[in-house]
Amino acid sequence: ASTKDGPGERTTVFFKGCPLNCIWCHSPENISVSAEEIPSETTKELKKIGREWTIDELTERLLADQSTFMETGGGVTASGGEPTLQAPFVLELFKRMKAHNIHTALDTCGLTRMSTLDQLIPYTDLLLWDIKTVNPDEHERFTGLDNGAILNNLFEVAEKLRKSGGPKLWIRTPLIPGATANRNTVWEIASMIHEELADIIERWELCTYNNGGKATYEKLHIPWQMSGVELLTAAEVEELHETIHKFPNVDKLACFSGPLRSA
């Protein structure tokens, strides 16, 4: 269960496989599309990460929480990894959820075919769109790929939403020390939202760095590139927030979440 991936109390379904390789990824077990094995925390046996579900199995599991969704205004979020890599399954899942009046949210990095988004959007109530930085060189350095297609898709989706309505749109930005948690990056994203998106997005979430993935990196024998990086302090976050104050139409959309370090 989750209260962070959309409104209300939700069940988030994590789909394995991601086209990006963010240096701060807190879910490295979801980068590969294949199931992986790691040592169990309680026994010497290996524990499998990831399993195959049939659409009927997953539907039954999710419908068990339907009353909670209805009581809290929650629903189901498809996340990852990148859920659009398994778009046919997500599409059928969302169709089934909407048949039961369950709210659906798609958490995406935006790196997918526009035709895929066109298929999913009619059955999606909320789009959670990750924007790490608008600088293409920085994006490639931090994630392995530039952000040209991500931004083009975002602007095209925004234009379609202006014309036809559709799902609500939230932008999500990770605040990573040494990468995106700086005034220039935040200012550039705020400026882009001000110029291109302020009329169409409902919320801009700025999520502070979470170092909770370290243990998983060790178990997967993947180098932890964020070793020694500390959480942000409240003062550091407020300094970044001050940058957004220059854009009143964006400032009212911005909200901050995530762990902080005591000063």
Q: Could you explain how this protein is built, in words?
A:
It is a single chain. With about 260 residues, the chain is of the alpha/beta class. It has one domain (about 10-20, about 55-210, about 230-255): Aldolase class I (TIM Barrel, Alpha-Beta Barrel). It is about 35% helix and about 20% strand. It contains ten helices and nine strands. The chain has helices at about 55-65, 65-70, 85-100, 115-120, 135-145, 150-165, 185-195, 215-220, 235-245, 250; strands at about 10-15, 35-40, 45-50, 75-80, 105-110, 125-130, 170-175, 205-210, 255. A seven-stranded parallel beta sheet has the order 1-4-5-6-7-8-9. It has a two-stranded antiparallel ribbon with strand order 2-3. β2 (about 35-40) and β3 (about 45-50) form a beta hairpin. α1 runs parallel beside α3 (about 85-100). The relative contact order is 0.13. The mean pLDDT is about 95.
Strand content: 15-25%
Give helix % range.
25-40%
Question: Tally of extended strands?
Answer: 9
- Calculate the mean pLDDT score and round it: 94
Q: Which CATH class applies here?
A: Alpha Beta
Shape: globular
Per CATH, the superfamily is Aldolase class I
C-alpha Rg (nearest Å): 18 Å
Q: What class do helices, strands and sheet pairing give?
A: alpha/beta
Instruction: Note the main sheet.
Output: 7 strands, parallel
Low-confidence regions: none
What name does the CATH topology carry?
Answer: TIM Barrel
Gap between N and C termini: 31 Å
The number of helical elements comes to 10
Which sequence of strands runs across the widest sheet? 1-4-5-6-7-8-9
Compressed to H and E, one letter per element, the order equals EEEHHEHEHEHHEHEHHHE
Count of structural domains: 1
Indicate the CATH architecture.
Alpha-Beta Barrel
